[in-house]
Amino acid sequence: MLWSNLPNAGFCDKNAKPWLPIAENYPQINVETQKADANSQYNFYKKILFLRNHTPALQKGQLEIAESLCNQKVFAFYRILEGHKYLIVLNMSKSSIESPTINGEVILSTHLKTNRKSFQAYEGKVFLMND
Predict the structure, then answer these.
(1) d(C-alpha 54, C-alpha 120), whole Å
(2) What are 80's strand-pairing partners?
(3) Chain centroid offset of residue 60 CA
(4) Is pLDDT at 131 greater than 80 in this prediction?
């Protein structure tokens, strides 16, 4: 694990010889750097885990495939529990696609810059539905 920008990536003392090789880019890519960057993959995982852990519908809600939204590029499904309905839409393609009309609020996206009119390549969004 690349923990920090310290010698040996913070894995062991600088005088020790690690038994596994240390990646050359450890000064830039490490846990400490990821924690400090609000837009890092580390912090995205924290956000998505927080959302799941604090949203009962995402944990144990009824699963319903959103067939009208699914095609060769898009997989979409609802999670529904006690009047709370979430839609998860995943663009599974390497190209941007036009967004279908969705009556809901985007509460999480895998991409920093997202908009309601399209999905970027490999973008996933979680919507809180308004209906």
Answers:
(1) 27
(2) 62, 85
(3) 19
(4) no
Question: Which regions of the chain carry the CATH code 2.60.40.1180?
Answer: 56-129
62-121 confidence digits (pLDDT tens): 999 999 999 999 999 999 999 999 999 999 999 999 988 899 999 999 998 887 789 999
Tokens read off for 102: 């969705």
**Is the separation of the CB atoms in 116 and 97 below 8 Å?**
no
Question: Which tokens belong to 100?
Answer: 């279908």
- Cα(109)–Cα(32) distance, rounded to whole angstroms? 23
Q: 56-129: which CATH topology?
A: Immunoglobulin-like (2.60.40)
Closest CA to 87 of 126, 47, 130, 48: 126
